[in-house]
Amino acid sequence: MPNCPQCLKGFSSARRVAAHLAQPKSKCHAWQRERLGLSLHSSSLTVGSTPNSSPSLDGFHDLPACDGFDVVQPVHDAIDTFVPFGDSDFDGEEGIWNPSVAESAALLAELGQGRQIQPFSSAGEVFDTGETFLKRFELDPFSSFRRTNLYYPFSGLNDWEMANFLLRSKMSMAKIDEFLSLGSVRTLPLSFWTAKELRSRIELLPTAPCWNYRIIATSYPTKSPAILYFRDSLECIEALFNHPYYADHMMYTPFRVFTSAERVVREFSEWMSRDVAWQMQSKLPPGATLCGVILSSDKTHITNMCGGKVAHPLLISLANIKMAVRNKASSHAFLLNALMPVVEFIHPVHRICSVLEARLFHECLDIVLQPLKVAARIGRMMSDPAGNLRHCFTPLAAYILSRIQCDPNDVERYFALCKDFRLSGVAEPFWRNWPLSDPANFLTPEPLHHWYRKFWDHDVQWCKNALGAPELDFRYSVLHPIVGMHHFKDGITALKQVTDRAQRDMQRFMVAVIGGAASRDVVIAVRALMDFRYLAQAPRITSIIQDRIKATLAEFHNHKDKITEEGLRRGAESGSALNHWFIPKLELMQSVAPSISELGAPVQWSADTTEHAHIEVIKEPASTTNHQNYDTQICRYLDRVERCRLFETATRLSALGDADDTHDQDLAVEDDGAEDDELNMADDEDAAAILKDIWSSRRSVPDFFGVAEKLRAALPGSIPHPVRTFSSGATALRVNRRPSIKRISIDKAAELFDIPDLRGALADYLSREGPHAQNFHSFGRQRRSPLGAHLPFSDLQVWYKVRLQQKSYHDSSSLEPVFTINACPPNRTWKYGRHDAAILQVDARHEWPASGLTGHTVVDVRLIMCPVSPRGLRLVWDDRLLVYVRRFDIVPQRQADVDLATGLHVLKRATRASGEFLGDVLPLDQIKSYAHLVPRFGEAADNRFTSTNGFHSAQSFWLNRYFDKEFYYALSL
Asked: Exposed, middle or buried, 99 (CB in 10 Å: 0-12/13-18/19+)?
């Protein structure tokens, strides 16, 4: 009986094996695509045999045991010889992927936009069958008990669910005991009745990487012992590499992406797409898998009370995981590897204490990272999520330290000599003996601290000094509010303890706020830095965008002198004008553009994720302690939580597999290959749903596109009309199930919403529709129908808002947060009504966002409605949601469509020859995006402006492209 080479399931014929592998959503199909070289994440998966000989591990006594794994003999020539990397790699035959016509067509369909991929040949190969996550679960010492009771050491599912809830509820032991002593709980058939007994049972669950500790001897006295708590770093990487949740998000082979078949323009995104990954792979033995290690370390306050306790966590992750998944805190892709000792040295010179702390930090890193250094030198056989055994190497970077000619143990003299070279005084940095290790590679640009904090510390201060604090605050306070974003009703200059999110929200409006008030060169300098931040945050950066990033920084330097000439750059404490530009964060920006080709997209190295991870791995565990010996209790808490989460994953997947086996036995008498394939697809989807439920956030982004697709496929008559959720291109829209006004006459609606030409606009719409519903309408035609035109209906349904969702500009599989477009009538708060601006498609040949404003226009959304058919009569267009909008015209600027200082479009309301505003009725699905308009305040803002009347009262506006990164990319790329 032939078997599937991936899942080993038996089939009646080879034809059915082929049909099974061809199922598009199955993991076996993805595995088959990898073997054919069609996957972006790995090259061909040629199965070979594991080498028999094992290398000597002399000098590496700290390497953990490799039970169940073979160690591959390294190819020393491949490790010691540097393979040149340059243009020859593109022209030579070796390493070039030459797909067939069929493979090229499949790849183009997968990547889209004509992209071409060049994977590294002879990399990421599978050497043998390894162990899946469930296989390791079955190798647990207590697995024999789980053959009859899957939830051992608990009596059953209910017992386990209660234990899991209590242990992950952050309740103290006393609270757990109190809960278990309740009379109603005593009636339950539990296997534990105290918190201590519960925790003892948890110790019998399969373990994650175990925690250890070591007391570090210091050369100088400290006020408390230096105790290092750590886990085996290689086991942490192996746990991530083998985790089933990352199965569809793992990359095994370096690759290069080009935007066209000519391979002229490179595109950089993931870590595997960078040049350094390619160079590292070229130094490894053939077939090896490159596993890039990501480390993050930063002190964090456990509490500001009780003496201000501080923890110093070391987080570890795997660069092979796609950054879209790795950068989500809810994906748990960063594990706590160690808790560094936080001690206070006793030394009369404070600066020497800092040197001693830095040396202790590097000494601890040496201990924690030793297994990874060994694996980077000789490799380690590790199983991927599919159970394929791969020969993995774990580099970080390479760096040769120029030593000072002095005894490093003489700390005072050594540091005095180091000061001349601006060195920290650390004689033996942790990376000194880490193969393929280079600070130029692992010290990556960091957007959170290098860009956002620089904006708050410097850019905001320049603007404040240019406009004056009262003027800047007033302009921010009267901006049109955006639902879901911070509205600075009291301004920004008096804010204290500004969060990272608040800093980002300030950036959205700064260029438009200062336009026309600050001098031209100052506005250009601030705008150039804003362009730099937005372009550098793109998840995919081509070599063309890389050049634009360089150009924006050069533009800033060309205009920055005006900032110092006007005395806008001032000392934080003295307040006196500064004439120099000694800003370290600004200097670090010089390395961003060159690093993109080496390190990939900078946004993946932001500290947002790791700082948020501190909440999960430090602050939340600390809140459950007795506020004594934090480190030990944090480690124990994390160990229990990880055991519970892994056990829940294993039991739910095992229960799913048992149910499938039972179902297969019931259907064993039937031999229907198609049905088998459908069941396999259903199994994969069920397993994916389980993993998502356990390992991802419960607060996921709404999916309007999925809802619209289901409604589109629903049987006629099974859903209400008009359809409330629908999609068009890269935009999905949703209105509430219940309209804000269930029924209102056309004339009353015109009066309520102040739309005198509503009846005439509806009549023109119907004349364009004709006898059959038309899918697309143009805008701006002459009004042909009179104001009192007769209509075949007299009433409308009205909605006060529509919610809009778009697909990501760079990745159509990723969904963006929802925006709300308001179209409310006047009320006590909003004297003129609350309406928002939007982008409306007016040319069917151009699609948003790829075309930008070409084929689109900016409109003021005034009324969202649906005609109500007369009773007993059903019209062909009565299930279409309509919108009445008024157009904005772009005001041409000197030699450009945008203002050269701000880089923004200038808008004014469009009018007809009669002087009335140019408005019309169009289908709602022609709205493609939210748009944010900022009044052009001029040199001094009108003090009559408020946040509720500015949109109505201003004569002209800036089209603010900075309010959202996706909107910026649509208008700028």
From this structure: middle
Question: For residues 93 and 638, what is the distance between their CA atoms, to the nearest angstrom?
Answer: 50
The first and second tokens of residue 455, run together, are 């904006």
CA dihedral 344, 346, 351, 352 (to 10 degrees): -110
- Whether 817 contacts 701, CB under 8 Å: yes
135, 197, 725, 811, 964 from 814: Cα distances, Å: 32, 45, 19, 6, 16
Length in residues, the chain? 973
Residues 155 and 192: beta-carbon distance below 8 Å: no
Give 708's pLDDT tier (boundaries 50, 70, 90). very high
Rounded to two decimals, what is the model's pTM?
0.81
Judge contact between 808 and 818, C-beta under 8 A: no
Instruction: Look at residues 971, 273, 199, 947 and name the one whose alpha carbon lies nearest to residue 604.
Output: 273
Element of type H or E holding 14 = helix 14-21
In sequence order, the 6+-apart residues with CB closer than 8 A to the CB of 973 are 538, 545, 809
The Cα–Cα gap between 856 and 858 comes to: 7
- Helices (H) and strands (E) counted in the chain, each on its own, are 36, 29
Instruction: For 310-333, give the secondary structure using H, E and C.
Output: EEEEEEEEECCECHHHHCCHHHCC
Q: Tell me the torsion sign for CA atoms 238, 242, 243, 249.
A: positive
> 3-class SS at 864?
strand
In sequence order, the 6+-apart residues with CB closer than 8 A to the CB of 883 are 802, 823, 861, 863, 864, 865, 921, 922, 923, 924, 927
Contact 807/847 with Cβ under 8 angstroms?
Answer: no
Specify whether the CB–CB gap between 577 and 570 falls below 8 A.
Answer: yes
Strand partners of residue 117:
257
State pLDDT tens for residues 166-213: 988 878 888 999 999 998 999 999 999 999 999 989 888 988 899 999
Contact 757, 776 (CB under 8 A): no
- Joined tokens for residue 767: 């004349």
Residue entry with tokens 């995919």? 540
Question: Backbone phi, then psi, for 732, in 5-degree steps?
Answer: -125, 145
Please state, in angstroms and rounded to a whole number, the distance separating the CA atoms of residues 114 and 846: 18
The percent helix, strand, coil of the chain (3-state, each to 5) is: 40, 15, 45
Question: How does residue 661 score in pLDDT terms, banded at 50, 70 and 90?
Answer: low
Which of 134-143, 311-320, 347-356, 645-654 is least confident? 347-356
The structure tokens listed for 649 are: 């994953």
Q: Is the pLDDT assigned to residue 86 strictly greater than 60?
A: no
Please provide residue 211's backbone torsions phi and psi, each rounded to the nearest 5 degrees.
Answer: -90, 145
Burial of 867 (0-12, 13-18, 19+ CB in 10 A): buried
- From residue 123, alpha-carbon distances to 41, 97, 219, 286, 390 in Å are 11, 13, 45, 6, 10
Distance in angstroms (rounded) separating the CA atoms of residues 354 and 349 = 9
- In this model, does residue 433 exceed pLDDT 90? no
Q: How far apart are CA 884 and CA 5, in angstroms?
A: 59
**Spatial separation of the C-alpha atoms in residues 703 and 441, rounded to whole Å:** 37
Residue 895's region, left for phi above 0, alpha for psi from -120 to 50, else beta, is left
How far apart CA 759 and CA 771 sit, in angstroms, is: 19
State the CB neighbour count (10 A cutoff) for residue 452: 23
| pLDDT category of residue 60 using cuts at 50, 70 and 90 | very low
- The answer to whether 136 touches 114, Cβ cutoff 8 Å, is no
Q: Which two tokens stand for residue 289?
A: 């898998």
